[in-house]
Design goal:
The structure holds two protein chains of two kinds. Chain A is 27% helix and 27% strand. By secondary structure, chain A is an alpha/beta fold. Helices cover 38% and strands 15% of the residues of chain B. In chain B, helix 2 crosses helix 11, helix 5 packs across helix 6 and helix 5 packs across helix 11. In chain B, 46% of the residues are buried. Classes of the chains: A alpha/beta, B alpha/beta.
Chain lengths: 185, 310
């Protein structure tokens, strides 16, 4: 399998995470009335890291959960396979809370759309903001944009962007593949 | 997620599905159980799916459970019962189903008194078929929810000793349970009067026991079945009173055991016959958990079967 091109190396990866955390702290201070929700599966890898860094820096315990969107996806019955769900671990309600929704890559916007639908099961949030590591600029299907982004990438439809994590892939980095079928598992 | 795909377009029996299928159903049911405990107990997955519940036999909890599962998944639901239909005017099963399907129905949940009815339909029509009980053959969703309830209580089904007690001969629940529990690595025993056990039941790899107290002493879990009087064309037992004396489970009997066992029952219970109230309503019983799990398991089956591109 051919490897992708590194578009964010390990050092810049750390700086970027740090910058996003600082932006969140600047806007939310001690995170009162604010909850963080990571989208399963890959968004939750980013939210795990972000929450760990925020808790370390603010010396406080954040309200944090992971949201599975399988049952709210709009491509159900339109794929050859059925997506098996991952656990949703939200033991709080989001009624009137600020929700920081986290995903790794924003592409068509359909996952975020499904996540906002799934989130309704936990109450009516006061406000939802979106944080993504990579914002793919082209081929958005919904009027959705990120409030916080690590980096922006101009990638056409056939391309694939993958966020890799040290504990899973050996290195923190972001890879760019010209063609989707070259995606690593 | 890197899980093996669901191997079938229909759920006709446990015998036909793989252990991976069962595990995928359980994994999915875990998440639906979580959904059912939220303030809003509904997801939109089946919003463009129409399901017909065709019940050619009486049913209370299976029909209600399927209907609730379908509605929790946002499916459109139509119900059909044989007693109030054109079946009474001589219409065949295939004609009835084809008429229903011409109304653009995507899935059929079928209960029928004839063994093999669901298999027959799956070969004749294009919709996904779920067998909700076909005569004395199989009742796969009941076996799945039974095994799911055991897994929930004990963490795993593998290695558990399960005694299925009662009218095995006429029970589709027994047969599906045997297949399901064995696929998941449990040891299975059947126990009942010789007249209510099939002659060659041991060829399925189950232990056979005629003495209830010995079966209870052996097992971790007793799945108690009712006497199916409606299927007894001849008298297999002298009387219900005698059956209750030899095969009725009461607290006094359980107190003689040197370990605690878990009591299950697929319902409806004949209280005072196979199960006494002091056991059915005790902490040993997970009968109501079975009913609760039934909705989540049926949601998982519907979700996995309907999800493929048509």
């Amino acid at each position: 399998m051919s490897s992708g091109r590194v578009i964010l190396n390990e050092q810049k990866f750390g700086f970027t995470l740090q910058r996003m955390c600082q932006q969140l702290i600047e806007n939310y201070h001690d995170f009162t009335d604010t909850v963080i929700v990571g989208i399963q599966d890959r968004g939750a890898l980013l939210s795990d890291r972000i929450v760990g860094m925020l808790e370390s820096q603010t010396k406080s315990k954040l309200t944090y959960g992971k949201l599975d969107i399988s049952f709210h996806r709009d491509d159900y019955r339109r794929r050859d396979d059925v997506i098996a769900p991952s656990p949703t671990t939200i033991d709080f309600i989001v009624e009137n809370k600020n929700v920081i929704l986290i995903d790794d890559v924003l592409y068509t916007g359909r996952s975020v759309h499904a996540a906002m639908s799934a989130l309704q099961q936990f109450g009516r949030p006061g406000r939802i903001e979106l944080l993504v590591f990579v914002n793919r600029r082209f081929n958005r299907h919904f009027p959705i944009k990120a409030d916080y982004q690590g980096m922006s990438v101009d990638a056409i439809d056939d391309a694939f962007v993958k966020v890799e994590w040290e504990h899973l892939n050996g290195k923190d980095q972001i890879l760019f593949f010209e063609h989707r079928e070259k995606k690593s598992t | 997620m890197s899980t093996p795909p669901f191997s079938t377009n229909h759920l006709l029996g446990i015998k036909d599905i793989t252990t991976d299928d069962i595990q995928l159903i359980f994994q999915t049911a875990d998440e639906f159980k979580d959904v059912l405990n939220r303030p809003i107990k509904k997801v939109p997955s089946l919003r463009d799916v129409t399901v017909a519940n065709l019940f050619f036999e009486n049913s209370t909890r299976t029909k209600l459970s399927f209907e609730l599962a379908e509605k929790r998944l946002s499916a459109d639901v139509i119900n059909f019962s044989a007693s109030s239909s054109s079946v009474n005017k001589g219409e065949t099963l295939l004609d009835t189903v084809n008429n229903v399907l011409s109304m653009k129905v995507d899935m059929i949940v079928l209960r029928h008194p004839t063994p093999g009815a669901a298999v027959y339909l799956s070969r004749k029509v294009g919709a996904n078929i779920i067998n909700a009980g076909d005569g004395t053959h199989e009742h796969p969703t009941q076996a799945l929810l039974d095994a799911f309830s055991i897994r929930e209580k004990f963490g795993s089904v593998a290695g558990k000793k399960v005694a299925i007690i009662g009218d095995i001969k006429h029970s589709r629940v027994a047969l599906s349970n045997i297949f399901c529990l064995q696929k998941l690595g449990a040891e299975v025993m059947v126990c009942g009067p010789p007249t209510l056990l099939q002659k060659h039941i041991s060829s399925l790899g189950v232990q056979v026991e005629y003495d209830l107290d010995r079966a209870l002493a052996w097992c971790d879990i007793a799945n108690v079945l009712r006497i199916q009087l409606e299927r007894q064309e001849i008298r297999y037992i002298p009387s219900l009173r005698e059956y209750s004396l030899f095969y009725g489970i009461n607290q006094e009997r359980l107190s003689r055991l040197d370990h605690e066992i878990t009591i299950m029952h697929p319902g409806p219970i004949n209280r005072g016959v196979e199960l006494h109230s002091d056991v059915a309503d005790s902490d040993h019983s997970i009968i109501l958990q079975q009913v609760e799990n039934g909705v989540a398991v049926r949601m998982a089956v519907l979700y996995l079967l309907a999800g493929r591109k048509g």
